[in-house]
Amino acid sequence: MIEPSQASSPRQIGPPKYERVPLRVLLVGPFTGYDPPSGDLAYTEALLVDPPVGVRYTTLHEALDVGAVRVRGRKPWHGVSRTADLALFAARAVELGARGLGIMFREQTLYLTVEEERFDLVHQHLFPVRLLGAQLPTVSSAGYPLTELYQAREGWGLRRLNLALGLEDGLARLAGTHQPWLRPSRTGVLTVYTPCFRDWLVARGVPGARIHVVGTALPDLPTPPRSSDGRTLGVVARDFHLKGGSLAVAVLRRLRSKDPSWRCVVATTRGIVGTDLAGEPGVEVHWDPPRSEVLNGVLPRVDVLLALTRSDCGAPYSVLEALHAGAGVVVSDSAWLDPRLSGPAVARVPRDPVAAAAAVTELLGGGPAVLSAAAVALWRTTFSMPVLQAELLRAYRQAIDLAGEAARSDC
């Protein structure tokens, strides 16, 4: 169980009935050792490394190990709840069948029974959850609608996307599910990375008062001194093409046509690239590097990270890690990316190598040291953990207030 940060004075969250320090939060989401590396895993790990003051997180896996949470509907249970579990098992079989046919998204609902006396709130990141039994206050976090992800990454057409969206919405309404990217439960609050996502949810009927814009953040990490030369680009992307790697190579070629000293350090996944990057002049490739190698061996050498992605949201963790390491960033001008990615350390451009190459030159116009200082300042003032923690605590407080109002109305 993760120990809470120490506070000089207890932080009170919510009305008197729900005051408790530390606030005991069940954290549901991707975790190291159970899920592959991703920005979503980096988000939950950041909360565990640096939780808000007065909050103690317990991961889903820790709670399962001590019996504080049960996953329902995976197979029939014996005992007094046997009939209910058989019905849920049958309902889930229908849901999983629809997902297997490709008429719904693959992200399946988690049906959980939580011991109410063990927790004060549930924070679910990414995964849709239906709580059976005790209805705890719920806060979720998500980056953008799954329709955007499946259109960019899976190539789904509009008709298929609309069908899946309608079925997901119907299931959420019927089952009372808290869907992080679609709708809250009765005592639930949604946190989203961008105003664009908030507007999308409001257009679909979610009350704006139940939506908080809470971006991503990165803890202060130990990093080695910078060793850049003012002529080094970087690409950090497991999916090289989806995250704009091919465009980055085109940017490098354009810069090298005028100055052959330009280089690009690439950290990516072998087998996805499909081209011989190692044979590209000026390119240095790190295949499947661990995060520690990216943080300590790649980013300190990068002057400008190229993140010309066509499938990302908020402030991607590769971007946050680059800013923390003192590298400027060129990102695509997607509305799903955090609008706070701006200023002297960040350029937002169309997914075009000419525009991106010009942005690189402009960012470095004042010199690598000036750019590096601006990058670190942007991380510290806008994307460090205290910023995320303050916004998240407001969402926690609202969810607890909603639960108190619901309890009073049911009496």
Summarize, please.
The protein is of the alpha/beta class and 411 residues long.
Number of domains: 2
Distance separating the two termini: 34 Å
Annotated CATH topology of the largest domain: Rossmann fold
Q: Which class of the largest domain in CATH terms?
A: Alpha Beta
Q: Which CATH architecture of the largest domain is right?
A: 3-Layer(aba) Sandwich
Instruction: Give the overall average pLDDT.
Output: 90
Overall shape: it is: globular
Number of helices: 12
Query: Can you give the helix content as a percent range?
Result: 25-40%
- Main-sheet strand order equals 2-1-5-7-8-9
Query: Which structural class best describes the helix and strand composition?
Result: alpha/beta
Number of strands: 15
Q: What is the gyration radius calculated from CA atoms?
A: 23 Å
Which spans have pLDDT < 50 for at least 5 consecutive residues?
1-18
* Main sheet makeup: 6 strands, parallel
- Tell me the β content: 15-25%
- Order of helical and strand elements: EHEHEHEEEEHHEHEEHEEHEHEEHHH
